[in-house]
Amino acid sequence: MSTTRPYSPGDRGPEPTGASGASEGGASATGASATGASAGGAPAVPAVSSGGRQVRRLSFDGESGVVPLARDFTRQALYAWGWLPAASADRRAAAEDVLLVVSELVTNACLHAEGPDALEITCDNKVIRVEVSDRGTGQPAPRTPHRAGRPGGHGMFIVQRLCLDWGVVRLPGVAGKKVWAELGTPA
């Protein structure tokens, strides 16, 4: 698993300008909740379709209880994208994996950075990508050796095991980072 490569094999390249809600063609955001607020009142950007690719973004600015907020936001996205309700055990497991990865990445930002700034979830026909941005300087990595019987230290090990790939993106001159992870969509 890569921890430095910003994009997975097949490099889809950087997010287009305005990926926080506008489609590549500049159209406005569409979706069931175009009000711009999530369940917790945090600003959220509803699903945007751009060539089969849908994006949702949640800002954690001033929010408390960010882990359950992130899980609820992700669950709403999974319902909107047809992952939930799950028609089979495999589809249910895939949705639970996405929720677990979101929980782990947001929790890591809380524990090891200055808290998360935003959560962005992108879904296309084959991959769902989760990105959590924070202002921390640390480099996430699975603890080695991994000791399954000990409490704590399992977050990035879980992410590594569940995901197709994951990594960290840092922009020159900008404080913080984005930790991303990609999971395969259910068949």
Break the fold down into its secondary structure elements and pairings.
Layout lengths: L43 E2 L3 E2 L2 E7 L6 H15 L8 H24 L3 E8 L3 E8 L20 H8 L2 E5 L7 E8 L3
Helix pairs in contact: 1-2, 2-3
Describe, in plain words, how this protein is organized in 3D.
Strands 1, 2, 3, 4, 5, 6 and 7 form a 7-stranded antiparallel beta sheet that branches. It contains 3 helices and 7 strands, in the order βββααββαββ. The chain has helices at residues 66-80, 89-112, 155-162; strands spanning 44-45, 49-50, 53-59, 116-123, 127-134, 165-169, 177-184. Residues 1-40 have low confidence and may be disordered.
Strand content: 15-25%
Largest sheet, strands/sense/barrel = 7 strands, antiparallel
Strand/helix succession: EEEHHEEHEE
Number of separate helices: 3
First-to-last CA distance = 23 Å
Instruction: Summarize the amount of helix as a percent range.
Output: 25-40%
The global form is globular
Mean pLDDT: 77
Helix vs. strand class: alpha+beta
Task: Specify Rg, calculated over alpha carbons.
Answer: 16 Å
pLDDT < 50 stretches: 1-40
Extended strand count:
7
